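Entry: Ribosome biogenesis protein NOP53
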Amino acid sequence: MPVLKPLSGPSSEAPKQFNQPSRKGKKAWRKNVDVTDVQKGLEDRVQQIIQGGVVAEKESKDLFVLDVSGDSKISKNLPKKIKALRSDEIINQRSAVPAVSSKKRSTDGVTDGVLPEKRQRKEYVSQKELIRLRKVADGRHEQTVTITEASYDPWGASAEPKKEVTVTTEERFIPDPVTKPKVKAPKTLVQPPVSLLASGKQIPAVQKPKGGYSYNPAFSDYENRLNEEAAKVVEAERKRLAEEEAERLKLEAAARSAKEAEAAEARADMSEWDEDSAWEGFESEGEGLKINAKRPERKTQAQRNRIKRRKEEEQRKKHEEAMKRKQQQLLKIEELADEVYERERARELAKVEMSDDDSDVDDEELRRRQLGKFKLPEKDLELVLPDELQDSLRLLKPEGNLLKERYRSLLVRGKLESRRKIPYRKQARRKVTEKWTHKDFSLD
């Protein structure tokens, strides 16, 4: 339905300006804006509502229809007789009889008109064989297997004597290239690890903590542990101060000796000056000093040879005494072996007699702090001061590190050796160069 408009009179349309070169000004924002597209869209929407609804809001079944019958006018418009193509005509002219094959055929099927004699087919199981198979299935056998005892013992046969192979001297020392020597395991692989404790007792991998390590300890246990740790800290500080004092005394002694050496050099220079002045006819204050030191004389070649012979004689005597001692030990090797055995047995008995209570083991009393090149890492101080104790588990801060504790436990039990972490491993140097392959090309 067309929109009705007045024939004459003032237009109801809003003023519009199609060409707006710029909208930078404030007045040009909403003034004389071209709204033709908006008006046209609204008019189209009103027309769609008048005609039955907005097309964009309708469903597909209201807008489209599925044609299942087809258009009847198409068959009427098509010609009744369609002219065939010439190519189709050529193809249809072929004979229905197949062509004669050029392949050679056998003459078995060619006969002289006389029918052959019928013979029984052998592809199937015969009646006689079928009867025999049925008897076998029922358990009736025509022939039975007779079991006879063996007349000889297969396991009692004597082994053939091995032939002696003569090996020459050259073949004896030539290793076999195929067989590889077996790798022998070290003896220490089956021996138990040696603990670092002073008592020599093996401690468990995970020790049971004492009462002082609890997050809510008893007052007596906490006080005892606090006093022990405080005593350790005080002793360490005392040792540190003693070392500093010893270092200070050492530096003072070195400075004092340096001053004395300088003073001695100064006195020596002064004595030389006094001698020069006395020779010139006047004496200084240092004339009364007399030096009775004897100057060392140069050794002759005979004296050097005598000293060399004396040193060689002393070395020979020491070597003879050591060889005599070694010979005596070789003669008493059985006694020494028995002594070592008794000593090891006594040590094992002492270990067995020790208490099995793991709570009494103190991993701080070690027989040595260093196993190898590096020292054993110190145990972390897991102690909370009295003012840091919390009365709530939500405010509790856990102490310790499981990884460090596990590593130190392996070191104390003797299963690992102390190592130092090397963050930057020394690597091979590499030289980076640029290939000048572009020089192989030339533009003519």
